[in-house]
Amino acid sequence: MVLSNYKGEEIIDSITIRQGKKYFDKKWMPRTVFNDTKDKDAYIIGNGESRQGFDLTCLPNDTYGCNALYRDYDPNFLVVIDAPMYQEVIENDYPQKGIVYTNRSNMLKYQGASHLIPHNQYLGAGGTAMHVAIHDGHKKLICLGFDCSLNGPNNNVYKDTNAYKSSTENVDQTVWAKEIYKLMINNPTIQWIFVDCEIPGDFLNLDNCSTWQYNELNTHINTKNETT
Predict the structure, then answer these.
(1) How far is CA 166 from CA 77, 108, 163, 169, 184, in A?
(2) DSSP secondary-structure letter at 168?
(3) C-alpha span between 58 and 76 (Å, rounded)
(4) How many structural domains is the chain composed of?
(5) Which residues contact 146 (CB under 8 A, 6 or more apart)?
(6) How far apart are CA 225 and CA 73, in angstroms?
(7) Is residue 26 part of a domain?
(8) What does the pLDDT look like over 86-110, one tens digit per residue?
């Protein structure tokens, strides 16, 4: 069994200002998710359109998904950052079905049986999913649906739906690329593989980043024979 040695963390739950001084209400948040990563890759599922057509049910454990992915597929771990998306997840009682990671602000506002993002780096959902996978102890991150090379019309499977921008709206998608690039720089021993994604060229200048086509992903899955 391979488990990270994370026990939990102390967070600032609220701040009170009295007579010009700040008083911090701190709270200990114990670890609530114990994931054995032994002999498993992490499959990080973004919602870019490049993953359309691939059957996600073929993916073995461990899968880390983002936001509205739960509407169509149940990942092992779902990461939700934005409040409107988290509200939808709670209203649909998804935390009763799957493991949901979110921030403390969402937990306080909407409640729900969710789990605190460990050592939150305050990234987008995709970058946070990668962060959680690394925190769990994964050494290889196989990434699908990360289309962040250009700003422009919304490239997202769930555009024009609740909590998402419209299909005609321009989106600053390269901000997520900058977050991911920094993660790769800061974690040189972790291997990133992007499967037929639209990624910036400078990603591939890093020794710990490479790309696959979907036929290579299928071969990997069939060869490794992990549990789905």
Answers:
(1) 26, 29, 10, 5, 30
(2) T
(3) 13
(4) 1
(5) 44, 46, 48, 50, 126, 176, 180, 194, 197, 198, 199
(6) 21
(7) no
(8) 999 999 999 999 999 999 999 999 9
